[in-house]
């Protein structure tokens, strides 16, 4: 079974590349060097883009994110909590790339494995208090050989941590998930609500009318579809509520929205 980095073993920052290809070069401002070591110019901050080994500044993210991993069930009545493992949390661009470059790629995971990338403090479970009234946008890629799942998942993760999937004040995106199954890959985006109006409870968005709630989720869905590279296709990305999905059992929950 594929192994992932341990939450107790953070990746050393001095080994972190700034791209999936491990390219530590940049065309940015040069930093003066003396005797083969990096020195700051007038105590200027040195980023990983200037010197990959001796930087003193990280690029913070707007939120802290946690990577989770679901290992395949053993077939011996495993409980969900035994399969779901918290891997590591991070709050900077450099830490993200360090983690990404030290975990197994999605394409190499065993069947019935999942990666979940959620805001810290939110468990990737329907029962979590911040998820239980929400839903998710999702799309299944049924022709696994026709897509680059690693590139797609990376693009979606970058969109999530870069806060490009929603607008300021939306406060909807909880996390993203990729499922590895025998017949398909599925990528999903979890939201806090299902777009109803109300007081912020039971799937309602506080201070929004039903039309405004739907508009917010539709806007997020369109951005998610773009992150999946499907914006110019006729493929449909569907949104369903977690409660509906839970009640549907083995059948597919009816989509509330589509883009």
UniProtKB/TrEMBL annotation:
InterPro entries linked to this entry: TIF_eIF4e-like, TIF_eIF_4E, TIF_eIF_4E_CS
Keywords, in A-Z order: Initiation factor, Protein biosynthesis, RNA-binding, Translation regulation
Disordered: annotated segments: 1-43
Polar residues bias: start-end ranges: 22-38
Highest rank taxon of the organism: Eukaryota
Example GO BP: regulation of translation
One GO term describing the cellular component: eukaryotic translation initiation factor 4F complex
Complex and partners: eIF4F is a multi-subunit complex, the composition of which varies with external and internal environmental conditions. It is composed of at least eIF4A, eIF4E and eIF4G. eIF4E is also known to interact with other partners.
Family: Belongs to the eukaryotic initiation factor 4E family.
Role noted for this protein: Recognizes and binds the 7-methylguanosine-containing mRNA cap during an early step in the initiation of protein synthesis and facilitates ribosome binding by inducing the unwinding of the mRNAs secondary structures.
Name of the protein described by the UniProt record: Eukaryotic translation initiation factor 4E
Naturally occurring in which organism (per UniProt): Mytilinidion resinicola
Upper taxonomic lineage: Eukaryota, Fungi, Dikarya, Ascomycota, Pezizomycotina
């Amino acid at each position: 079974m594929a192994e992932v980095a341990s939450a107790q073993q953070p990746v050393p920052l001095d080994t972190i590349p700034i791209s999936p290809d491990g390219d530590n070069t940049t065309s940015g401002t040069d930093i003066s060097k003396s005797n083969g070591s990096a020195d700051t110019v007038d105590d200027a901050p040195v980023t990983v883009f200037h010197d990959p080994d001796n930087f003193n500044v990280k690029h913070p993210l707007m939120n802290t994110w946690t990577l989770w991993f679901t290992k395949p069930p053993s077939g011996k009545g495993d409980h969900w909590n035994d399969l779901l493992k918290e891997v590591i949390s991070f709050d900077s661009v450099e830490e993200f790339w360090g983690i990404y470059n030290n975990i197994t790629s999605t394409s190499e995971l065993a069947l019935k494995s999942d990666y979940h990338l959620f805001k810290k403090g939110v468990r990737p479970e329907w029962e979590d208090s911040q998820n239980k009234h929400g839903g998710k946008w999702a799309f299944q890629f049924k022709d696994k050989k026709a897509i680059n799942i690693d590139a797609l998942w990376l693009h979606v993760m970058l969109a999530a941590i870069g806060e490009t999937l929603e607008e300021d004040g939306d406060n909807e995106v909880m996390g993203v998930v990729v499922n590895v199954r025998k017949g398909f890959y599925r990528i999903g985006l979890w939201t806090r609500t299902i777009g109803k109006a109300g007081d912020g409870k039971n799937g309602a968005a506080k201070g929004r009318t039903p039309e405004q709630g739907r508009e917010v989720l539709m806007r997020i869905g369109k951005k998610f579809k773009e992150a999946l590279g499907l914006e110019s296709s006729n493929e449909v990305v569907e949104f369903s509520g977690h409660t509906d999905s839970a009640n549907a059992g083995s059948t597919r929950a009816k989509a509330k929205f589509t883009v």
